[in-house]
Amino acid sequence: MKGSVCVYFVFPFLLLCSLGSATLRIPSNARLPSLQAEKLIRELNLFPKESINIIDPNDVSAAPVAPRIVEKRIKFPNFVDPDVSAEDLGHHAGYYTIQHSHAARMFYFFFESRNSKKDPVVIWLTGGPGCSSELAMFYENGPFNIAKNLSLVWNEHGWDKASNLLYVDQPIGTGFSYSSDKRDIRHNEEGVSNDLYDFLQAFFAEHPQFAKNDFYITGESYAGHYIPAFAARVHQGNKAKEGIHINLKGFAIGNGLTNPEIQYRAYTDYALDMGIIKKSDYDRINKVLPVCEMAIKLCGTDGTISCVASYFVCNTIFSSIMLIAGNVNYYDIRKKCDGNLCYDFSNMEEFLKQKNVREALGVGDINFVSCSPTVYQAMLVDWMRNLEVGIPALLQDGIKLLVYAGEYDLICNWLGNSRWVHAMEWAGQKEFVASPEVPFEVDGSEAGVLKSHGPLSFLKVHDAGHMVPMDQPKASLQMLKRWTQGSLSGATAEPENLVSSM
């Protein structure tokens, strides 16, 4: 999840699980999900004015007046390279009206590649559910970083150095995306992936020169749900010849939540291995596992009310670990949280509320909802669904999957991700399991450990937490370049062009 930080929220709950003679104690300050979501948003030092962007349909002044598409070339104010024109930059921002919605408009940024317009088109989805992709854009892999004085400086390792890069605020109500109809609030992956498919159709209709480029879906955290569903939707649309053919080549999940049954089972193993809990804690907390696994099985793959129950049951495991861990940052266990503050992403909100920035983006008076508790809560029925089930068919058709994970993340840890990837039944499973681990090297040093067979790859990234592109920017850019060029285990086909070709 959560934003992107890619990040995804996990909440304690008002419940005691009695298991034989053992009682798993839940924090006395446990809250309802929406309230706990607000607390965790504060841990990122974010203070969105509204909980979701659902505007009054009678307040026509609140939103930009828009046909099906409104897009403009942009040049951010306070950009440190003032001699570069908006035309040279190839940066765009805008809204698409989502075709199969009631009144939804999805906001996005599009950054043409600094290397070559023939580079792949890569879309990034931040998790949450309900966190804006601007979190990743400004703090992880976008073209810019925000300086302390709110100026923008080039990100030397932005993913636009190897791709034409899209960031989308989704689900509807997140970031600058909005609707005037509450029926556009999404509750499952069908709604989310259909909106994203409609978005892509509008995007490629507006930018036909990029429609034949290779296309890749990427993202982080709760996007471990979004990405497989979206990839399957694109593949389905292509097969049915629904609209513009999208040249889908692969999808990548970073520190994601994809198969909850396997990943929740890995929490205590990871926490014990990393010295966060003791063996006695491990044995006590694991008494919840059979109940959690049964609840997830009842949830299945379709998303029912039983999925909400399984969310509450299974998150006692994570909550109990955090009771013992104290102020450990669960996105990066090497770090401590200072009071309620685990990261400080507040300058993003300060930057985006500036009048000249908002004018440059054309967002009118729309609020910027950095992370939405309302979107989060709306997706609770989706949380415990297993999204791995649709992946084997994509692999069978030659669409590549890269699962990568920073080794110091607890909340979507590498161990749980590795286990679901290894357990996934597909034509090449035996060969993948038997394949050797090889070093993933960057500049002659081992940056991770890679395992691959055919279209499937798993990469454990060293010295990184939940947000790999933030913690290891150079390694993450090399990962993207090599993966999209089909040479993940070796050197890139072309030496890195350190100077912009603009």
Report a brief summary of the structure.
33% of the residues lie in helices and 16% in strands. The protein has helices spanning 33-42, 86-89, 134-139, 189-206, 223-240, 260-273, 279-285, 289-299, 305-325, 346-352, 355-361, 373-378, 391-396, 414-423, 429-434, 468-471, 473-484; strands spanning 17-19, 22-24, 69-73, 91-97, 105-111, 121-125, 144-146, 152-154, 164-168, 215-220, 248-254, 400-406, 438-442, 445-453, 456-461. A hairpin with a 7-residue loop joins strand 4 and strand 5.
Question: What secondary-structure arrangement, pairings included, does this model have?
Answer:
Elements: E1 17-19, E2 22-24, H1 33-42, E3 69-73, H2 86-89, E4 91-97, E5 105-111, E6 121-125, H3 134-139, E7 144-146, E8 152-154, E9 164-168, H4 189-206, E10 215-220, H5 223-240, E11 248-254, H6 260-273, H7 279-285, H8 289-299, H9 305-325, H10 346-352, H11 355-361, H12 373-378, H13 391-396, E12 400-406, H14 414-423, H15 429-434, E13 438-442, E14 445-453, E15 456-461, H16 468-471, H17 473-484
Parallel strand pairs: 6-9, 6-10, 10-11, 11-12, 12-15
Antiparallel strand pairs: 1-2, 3-4, 4-5, 5-9, 7-8, 13-14, 14-15
Protein name: Serine carboxypeptidase 3
Keywords: Carboxypeptidase, Hydrolase, Protease
Organism: Camellia lanceoleosa
Average pLDDT number? 86
CATH class: Alpha Beta
CATH architecture: 3-Layer(aba) Sandwich
**Shape annotation:** globular
**Given the structure, what is the number of helices?**
17
Domains (count): 1
Low-confidence stretches: 1-31, 491-502
Percent helix: 25-40%
Q: What is the fold named in CATH at topology level?
A: Rossmann fold
The share of residues in extended strands comes to 15-25%
* Major sheet strand order: 3-4-5-9-6-10-11-12-15-14-13
Query: How many strand segments?
Result: 15
